[in-house]
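Predict structure. Chain length: 66.
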Amino acid sequence: MTSSTATMPLPASPAREVRRRSPAFGLAAPATLFVVLALLGPLALMFRYSLNRFVPGQMMVEALTL
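Prediction complete.
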């Protein structure tokens, strides 16, 4: 006859648990970083160009105008 209390394994203590990252994270992180830099780089350049001053004979003159 079997006993009514089944032996269940104890859960691992939090100190022994190792959190494993998904392999997809290792592939997505560099791609995400590349896309962010590819989008923010030109955006920063356009912002810098927007602060230039327009002179009709010289087109854009480097300045810090607001």
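Summary: Helices lie at 23-50.
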